[in-house]
Amino acid sequence: MVRGSPSRIDEMMESFQEAYVRGVAAAAGCIIAGIPAIDEGVDLRLTHRADAHKMGDHTAHLEVQMKSSGKGPIEQGKFVTATLKRSRYDDFRATDLTINKIVVILHMPDDQEKWVKAGETALRLHHRAYWVNLQGLPPIENPDQQSITVRAPTSQIFDDLSLCRMMQRIGQWEKP
After folding, report:
1. pLDDT of 62-108, one tens digit each?
2. Exposure class string for 91-129: b at 16+ Cβ within 10 A, else e
3. Cβ contacts of 115 within 8 Å, gap of 6 or more
4. How distant is the alpha carbon of residue 75 from its chain centre?
5. Helix (H) / strand (E) containing 129
6. Is the peptide bond before 53 cis (omega within 30 degrees of 0)?
7. Which residues contact residue 162 at a Cβ distance below 8 angstroms, ignoring those fewer than 6 apart?
8. Domains of the chain, earliest start first
């Protein structure tokens, strides 16, 4: 089966992860803004409106950096990992953020044939995404190090319910 240019697999992985995050956000009732093709460190901005949010306009905002990895969970299945550029890491670990930020790491098969399975009752996307808040983490000590591996706990599944809970916390002026 011809699936497209293998030399563009990274772009296809990015499209797949964007579709995953957009689906979760829609199910959580979020409005989505952002163009991942423009690399400013934030792939999507999510907005969630609810009367319970304490902000004057009753909206909570969250910025998302998407990453994907074909590597399986590490440390007895407790974490998935992805690499961030030093500048992105510094942006996301800052403590004086105007808008909260998270990194979403999509663990997906290396084999493109296994990304999607269509059945009679469902369209299944493989595998699963996890999220991590880097706010307050320490700086990279080595001045020559230009990237860092970040870990998202597999207990922090990125789905519609977890996104609703994050937005609820953000709407109360708390961290995600």
Report:
1. 999 999 988 888 888 899 999 999 999 999 999 998 999 999 999 99
2. bbbeeeeeebbbbbbbbbeeebeebeeeeeeeeebebbb
3. 16, 108, 109, 125, 126
4. 21
5. strand 128-132
6. no
7. 131, 156
8. 6-171 (3.40.1350.10)
Q: How many CA atoms lie within 13 A of 166 on its CB side?
A: 31
Q: What is the token pair recorded at 97? A: 């953020």
Cβ atoms within 10 Å, residue 25: 22
Q: Which residues contact 118 (CB under 8 A, 6 or more apart)?
A: 124
Evaluated on CA atoms 81, 106, 165, 96, the torsion sign reads positive
CA dist., res. 122 & res. 125, Å (int): 10
pTM: 0.91
Residue 130 β-bridge partners? 105, 157
